[in-house]
Amino acid sequence: MANAKRLPSGAWRTLVFSHTAKVDGKDKRVYESFTSWDKDESEFLAAEFKLTHKKKKSNNNDLTVSETIDKYLTMRELLSPTTIEGYRKIKKYAFQNIMNVKVKNLDNENMQIAINDEAKRISLKGTVISPKTVANEYGLLSTAIHKIHALRFDIVLPKRPIKNVELPEPQEVIRVIKGTWVELPCMLAIWLSFSMSEIRGLKCSSVKNGTIYIDQVLVDVENKSYEKSTGKAERRIRKHQLPAYITDLIARQESYIDYKKTGKDRHLVPLTRNQIYGRFKTIMENANFDISFHDLRHLNASVMLMLNIPEKYAMERGGWKTPHTMKKVYQHTFSTERKIVDKKIDEYFDKLL
């Protein structure tokens, strides 16, 4: 059993051999480190890893990259349907040169070659995939291989270029979407910072006493729509005071009028993702604006920055926060300070109408 050594800090560290990796054409021994303030615990964790590592190597020694991903996804069955679908697409289209290669035959050199080849791949849209896409794809590969085989590779991913995206001014976007079929979803995005899935997940009952609540989203998986009780994380469970203009837009929605008459609850914006996005893109292209629907949230963030909205409230309005922070601020939602922030933003957008 490996023995722990005391560090200058007073903690104990135990090193355990994990595997060899090719570095500059030479085999290099790679070790896992286990550090603890308790010597016995450090040695125990190291011994546990060594035993588990041996079992993994014996049970999974002949798995291909494709089989490794399948096994990893089986272990992560609690992942959201959209995440699983995304991983399945990666397995189907990405790194096809090594999908049928046994993981035991991979090293730093051929993994780097695979990454370089993947960075040249043409997407279904007919363009070369972006460095961000390569990084996301490799993220799945490396995680699955590490979890199943306890292996890591020393590679270099393509650099992401710095983009200076110039978006149209908020008033220009509002001018061309006013009175259109997609005015309500667009205003929810640019004014209240709602995402596409959040907008589609809104029910008529989400509107109560001048407040709109986000407690579910509607996502597409394999061309079918699924409701989820929350967004990507707890940070997306939030509420907003409704500005008068958006309240009026909602009151004129056929779905909301029917809800008020019959009590039949349904989606506030009864459009598919493609219907919303398709109509939005047509309007933007006719106006010569190069902007995606998601960019409306970016415009909202830019407006809050311009208005010097404190970061705490900007994150709260947009749902950009950790669950821990969300729990802290959610108890004080619509505090005096938050109401001042909302009023400031509402006054800004009111002037643009």
Describe the structure in your own words.
With 353 residues, the protein is α+β, with helices and mostly antiparallel strands. It folds into three domains: 5-60, no CATH class; 65-149; 170-352, hpI Integrase, Chain A. It has 15 helices and eight strands. It has a three-stranded antiparallel sheet. Strands 4-5-8 form a three-stranded antiparallel sheet, with no helix packed on it. A hairpin with a 2-residue loop joins strand 2 (12-23) and strand 3. Helix 2 crosses helix 5. The longest helix is centred in the N-terminal third of the chain and has 22 residues, at 39-60. The termini are far apart. Residues 322-334 have low confidence and may be disordered.
Write the layout of secondary structure elements.
Elements: E1 5-6, E2 12-23, E3 26-36, H1 39-60, H2 65-75, H3 81-93, H4 108-118, H5 131-149, H6 170-177, H7 183-192, H8 196-201, E4 207-208, E5 211-214, E6 217-221, E7 224-228, E8 238-241, H9 244-251, H10 254-262, H11 273-286, H12 295-306, H13 311-318, H14 323-330, H15 336-352
Antiparallel strand pairs: 1-2, 2-3, 4-5, 5-8, 6-7
